[in-house]
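Troubleshooting log. The previous structure file for this entry was overwritten by mistake, so regenerating from the original sequence record. Sequence copied from the archived sheet and checked twice against the printout by T.R.
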Amino acid sequence: MDAVRLEAGGDGTWELVGELGFATVSGLLKSTPRRFFEGGDVRLDLSGVTRADSAGLALLVEWLRESANRGRSIDFLHIPEQMLSIARVCGLADILFGSTVNGTGEA
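Regenerated output below.
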């Protein structure tokens, strides 16, 4: 499985790049930069995610929880269809991506 990385952009935007699965999520969670949560609200671009499974979805739930605990929000952008499908099956699409998400993964 390819490595996954979290890259800082500008203005609170971050990009997640690579495979988001059981083999990569634990390491990514442990290495999440403190500044990911310490700035303002976060915009997380998922267009670089090449593959995702339920572990990837669990990571997004954890980041959403941690952000909420810090009084911040996360907006997920360019959600891959594979991830959106898993979220729908698990009943998490509205919680993670909002009720306005359409089939393209755009809110």
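Confidence is low (pLDDT under 50) at residues 103-107. Archived copy saved in two places this time.
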